[in-house]
Specification:
Length: 594
């Protein structure tokens, strides 16, 4: 796992206090569990809550942070439990060795399941995890010589240090506290930021240099790992495991727990787990009336989810946040540093060389054998009527589409077959025609993600990235609003944040897809000035835009596309007076060059 650091200076300031409070709270809980003599019934409930919570925190990571569904958490929980059960009882292995084996097993299973299904999204991923869950259950029930079948495994002993229920409970609470801390800190680590970026916008994440596949598989594997850990602890706690404890229904219970408590925080996991374990206990007296118990239980869950869509903890923290903002926490002012850009450093006179590039969608030749090259340090415009293949060209350049034919050379490197994040690492930066920001994050967090990729030759310590992100925001004129959520910005300013995100990544070539679209005339002037400031730093720009005033103002070279083919290429005056260009534009009213 990547190192865990803070996001914002504000978070950095409060971190020691938060950590202190956390450690104090955890110590009290562990001390209480170790010394207070609960009756066996309460001990069991607490043991179940602690071990389940560990597994539910896995879902906080995969679902809450990374936005992936996992309907097989009970299977991972069961694999961990059976590793301890079978290992200690049938093979006489040491308890800790069994936990280790269990964790390796679930990690491998989780990574395999994640890697083999990660290309599938949403419903398909849900179906595959359900299948995995069913397979695990079937094996537990039917592979009797190994698993003991439906009878399960009994007589599981605890490790020497923690033989009493009391001591073992204290141990489980300690593990829960450590896991809770790691999950709490994860969102502000580079890995956690990558997960949140993938959840918010996969395409933008990949173009910001994040390996989306690997991030998803990692999230899935962490989820499985925590599931297995919870299960292994559970087996030691209850001394008995059987297949029905780890069925699909239990996976749904795990999912309900995390949704009920709130997916955004490990506290939500504990709250949801505690509640779903306690509600049945509270309603125990209703069990004599068949059906009534389930009806009330179901109704309670539905009501909570209905009125608290972010879960109980989400609802509470919304409340405290509102209260907190009224008490007026002063925003942190960044010391204004200048934005350093790699600019024109490099050897070859051409930053980009495109040869015979084609992209066909079935019979439609969106891009059809286009060649051009972009000179280092120049502003190069790609224009053409609507539907002429400009965005498709940019998507092929940045790796979102694989080309049907042709080659792309970036700064001397053949990037034709690289995935998007590898091209970003190689020096490509881009913005989107339809804005793609990470919508649950602040402006500065968005830009930090752009700066974080391994190809960026800047310091990766958190404070350095934070300073760089703030410098990039200041460069586009939004320095004093860095800590606001991106959704609170106007459309035009969101475009600027996208440009800042790309700049922070230190590209050698910046691709801009219609940055002026949707801007009013003042904003267009500001954008023109910004583009000139970027160009003055020596950065090479390839810009698509419809606004001919802007294009002829900033570009020194223009390539024109029509029906996916290049129809002109050269300096602005000769290109815009080229008869083919005039004819192409006469046919499409909204894109008229003049
Ligand atoms: P421009 O950006 O120049 O307006 P585009 O590159 O977006 O044009 O589109 C070029 C052509 O390719 C259009 O006819 C468009 O409908 C088509 N096209 C773009 N993306 C796809 C896609 N994913 N699938 C099928 N057709 C597409
Ligand atoms: Mg377009």
């Amino acid at each position: 796992m990547t190192s865990i650091t803070d996001v914002s200076p504000a978070a950095r300031r409060t971190a020691p206090l938060g950590l202190l409070a956390y450690v104090a709270l955890a110590a009290v809980a562990v001390f209480f569990a170790a010394t207070h003599s609960f009756d066996a019934y309460i001990t069991n409930i607490l043991m179940q809550a602690a071990t389940y919570s560990v597994a539910v925190m896995g879902l906080t990571v995969v679902l809450g942070l990374c936005g992936q569904i996992n309907l097989a958490q009970a299977a991972f929980f069961g694999l961990g439990a059976y590793a301890v059960g079978l290992g200690t009882v049938d093979y006489g292995l040491n308890f800790w060795v069994c936990i280790g084996l269990g964790l390796v097993t679930v990690l491998a299973a989780g990574a395999f399941l994640g890697a083999s299904t990660i290309r599938l999204g949403g419903h398909y991923l849900a179906m595959v995890t359900i299948s995995f869950q069913q397979i695990v259950t079937l094996v537990m029930i039917n592979w009797i010589p190994v698993t003991h079948g439906p009878d399960g495994v009994s007589g599981i002993s605890r490790p020497g240090l923690f033989t009493t229920a009391q001591a073992y409970l204290a141990f489980c609470v300690t593990v829960l506290a450590v896991v809770g801390y790691l999950v709490w800190r994860l969102p502000s680590s580079p890995l956690g930021r990558a997960m949140r970026a993938v959840r918010d916008n996969e395409l933008a994440a990949s173009v910001a240099g994040i390996d989306v596949q690997r991030t998803k598989v990692t999230a899935f594997a962490i989820c499985a790992l925590l599931g297995g850990l919870g299960g292994a602890l559970f087996a030691g706690g209850f001394a008995y495991v059987s297949p029905d404890q780890f069925s699909f229904a239990e996976s749904i219970v795990f999912l309900t727990m995390v949704l009920l408590g709130g997916v955004a925080s490990p506290i939500g996991a504990v709250v949801g787990t505690g509640l779903l374990i306690l509600i049945p206990e509270w309603l125990r007296f209703l069990k004599s009336v068949p059906g009534l118990y389930l009806a009330i239980y179901g109704l309670a869950v539905i009501l909570i989810v209905l009125f608290m869509p972010d879960g109980i903890w989400g609802w509470i923290s919304q409340f405290t946040r509102r209260f907190g903002s009224r008490s007026g926490v002063a925003p942190v002012r960044a010391e204004a540093t200048a934005l350093e850009l790699r600019g024109s450093s490099g050897h070859a006179p051409e930053v980009l060389r495109v040869e015979g590039l084609a992209k066909h969608f079935g019979g439609l030749k969106a891009v059809d054998g286009v060649s051009f090259s972009v000179k280092r340090g120049s502003v190069h415009a790609l224009i053409g009527p609507n539907g002429s293949g400009k965005t498709t060209t940019l998507n092929v350049l940045s790796g979102i589409y694989a080309p049907t034919a042709g080659s792309i050379t970036l700064d001397g490197l053949d990037v034709t077959n690289l995935p998007p994040h590898r091209r970003t690492i190689a020096g490509l930066g881009r913005t989107f025609q339809n804005i793609r920001l990470f919508r649950t994050m602040t402006a500065v967090e968005n830009v930090i993600i752009g700066a974080e990729h391994p190809g960026n030759p800047v310091q990766k310590a958190h404070h350095a990235l934070d300073a760089r992100a703030r410098a990039a925001l200041a460069f586009v004129g939004l320095g004093d609003r860095a800590d606001e959520l991106v959704t609170s910005f106007s459309y035009g300013h969101q475009r600027l944040i996208e440009i800042a995100r790309a700049l922070a990544g230190n590209p050698t070539l910046l691709l801009l897809d219609e940055p002026a679209a949707g801007l009013n005339s003042t904003e267009k002037l500001e954008l023109t000035a910004l583009l000139k400031r970027i160009a003055a730093k020596g950065l090479t720009i390839l810009i698509i835009d419809h606004d001919m005033t802007l294009v002829s103002d900033v570009a020194e070279h223009i390539t024109v596309l029509n029906f996916g083919r290049r129809i002109a290429d050269g300096d602005p005056v000769s290109v815009l007076n080229h008869p083919d260009v005039v004819t192409a534009y006469l046919g499409s009213e909204p894109d008229a060059p003049y």
